[in-house]
Amino acid sequence: MVRVKQRYILFSILYPVPPNGSVSSPIPQSMAFHQPSPTALTRTSLATIIRHSIAHNFGDLGMGQAGGFAVKYFSQATSTGILRITRENFRILWAALTFVRELYGQPAVIKVVRVSGTIRKAEKEALKLAEDTIRRVKNEHKAMGGSKSGRGIAAIFAAGKSGGKVPQKATVEDEDEDEEMIVDIVDSENDDDDDD
Amino acid sequence: MDVDVPSKEKVRLKPRSPGEQRFTVRKPEWQHLHLRMTFDPPYPADHSSPSYPPDLLTWKTHLSEALNQFLGVSGMAIPVDFLHSADGAEVYIRIPREDSPRFMAGITGWGKEVEGRTVGFRVLGSTEFSMGLVGGDGTDLFR
Predict the structure, then answer these.
(1) Closest to A57 (Cβ–Cβ): which among B69, B73, B102?
(2) CA nearest B121: which of B31, B33, B35?
(3) Is A124 strand, coil or helix?
(4) Domain limits at A36?
(5) In chain A, positions 50-109, which contact chain B (CB-CB < 8 Å)?
(6) Is the pTM higher than 0.80?
(7) Chain A contacts of B68, Cβ < 8 Å?
(8) Does residue B116 belong to any structural domain of this protein?
(9) A165-183 per-position pLDDT tens digit
(10) Coiled coil where (chain A) (predicted)?
């Protein structure tokens, strides 16, 4: 019996155009493209959008090859997520992601950050990504001579305040020194049935 | 393009004329197909109307539709060169060789109802060189 090999695709959604009529405080430059996702964008609706993209670009054959992917994780706050797909077909899914041009009428680019053989590695990369982002924002804030540290980050996550449950929280404790990340990525090897 | 350099023994056994070179075309750029558009129920042999025999635009429309269904936009992006149309119902086309398996799978698995007849495609011939479709061994080229 041969095990079915999988690939886990870690992606992040970039929004080149800021959402209109929002965000009172200016967004740090390094976060300009990293907006929170619309509240309507959930794991299931994202799967539908990606499936449409596959069907449009690769037809029935593509749907047969890559239609069986699963959205293992998606965070609206950080606009990152993890997809699972069989190893032979991950390039089709990748291409379909690249061809997505807008989400809910908002111009968007889905960037594949990492392709990994285990979900653990993908999670690690997601954590690193979030940590890097926070570090970058802090540095930028410091460089601009801001005394109210943590304000910029608060603004970013305030902009993403959404009604829905946000599975990934990045909380920054106090000042620069002791920052702590609470990220609960659901490693759901057993909940395959909830996606399709 | 690989140049087939003759081994030393061969040269000794059968000397080549000076300047003679041999090469094998291993991966040709094109695949040539001979297609027929099928109608069910079929048109009478001498039937002639605006919808039969189909013109090249009809061919292009139907091929695109078949490819769009099976392969999506990436299938419609396969460039099709119409080389010759025998009598409308049959054409000779040329497509990139790498696309030919997908192309053939896409068009042969397609069918559509047009004016009460099911339209489909049949691949009558597929070869990397157009001579394979036209017939003949091509020796007359070298005479």
Answers:
(1) B73
(2) B35
(3) helix
(4) 6-185
(5) 54-62
(6) no
(7) 59
(8) yes
(9) 444 444 433 333 333 444 4
(10) none
